[in-house]
Design brief:
- This protein is α+β, with helices and mostly antiparallel strands and 376 residues long.
- The strands form four sheets. It has a seven-stranded mixed β-sheet, with helices on both faces.
- Strand 5 and strand 6 form a beta hairpin.
- Helix 1 packs across helix 7, helix 6 crosses helix 8 and helix 8 runs antiparallel to helix 9.
- The chain starts with a helix and ends in a 15-residue tail after the last strand.
Amino acid sequence: MSTKRRRKKKKQIILFAVEFVVLIVLLAGLYVYSKMDKVESTGEIEKEEVNIELDSETAEVLKGYTNIAIFGLDNRETGSYSVGNSDCIMIASINNDTKKVKLVSVYRDTFLNTKDDTYNKINSAYASGGPKNAIAALNKNLNLDIVNYVSVDFEALVDAVDLLGGIELTLTDQEVQIMNDNYIDEINQVANRSSSRLSSGGTYTVDGVQALAYCRIRYTAGMDFKRTERQREVLLKMIEKTKGAGIGTIGSLIDTMFDKISTSYTSKGMLDLAGSMMDYEVVDNHGWPFELCTGTYGSKGDLVVPTDLETNVKELHEYLFEEKNNVSNTVTAISDYIINYTGCTTNATSRFDNPLTGDVDTSEADVYVPDSEMAQ
């Protein structure tokens, strides 16, 4: 296999590890301090650099939370965390009083304002100006106050699951067949493993290769959106195992992960987060937008379109902060632009997945496959 083809395959298979970084950041404790020299710290970000536009009431509500942007990218070709599309985008919102954490995955093909007057898929914001621009785009479009981030390379998932001794998953016959036919052998080759195929549906303690194969499945009902749910399931299983792990295992995980991380956090900032490490509890996680439609729009390709942005931002704030905050004038203007460009209003919604109401209707969105995924 050529080097170019090997890189392409590796990029294709390593699609999910960034969520686990949240756990490492929050649970590592004082051990983190001894490993901080392994992390690339870019230093603190000033509010003026990242498009924070909040009214006084919203700003007061958000004071009670720490919001962190988490980006997953493949930086092996450049060796840099300052460029590239962020194919995984998450927001970790920590309630400072209760220590409860909610995680929101922003669908990477969501059509938003990515820089100045440019509208594109949100994953292109990182490529347009690195982590600061990506944070600025999240703040501008979602009416948030993010000033810190973690960027991670995707290579650590297989090692992390193996170090934890595997995780338990219940698989259907269809899922096992897809894992065996499409992913396990390929991941073994790229990751230098010899993981076995599975025989049939059932409950297994899967290793890192098998867990990653499970995370990649998208050719079932729900398509790419269902794959996101599988990824969250793996995340929660890893969190369960890590909370019961010893300091030796935690140390090995940090050794594996931290040299593949870039962050705005300094050593002091990391220690401040870690001070209440055992009190943190991930209580929920969800994908965003909650209501959307999908389609192909000329040179923009296949898009996820929030229906509409203003409504989705209000719902996001209610989900994360339990307050119905007002949106900024900028969010309203972006929402109007997206409607005019795509024609997708609230009446055009084809996917409802609202954690606030429990409303779920995803039948018309099952055909969606992001154009960035077509070669995989």
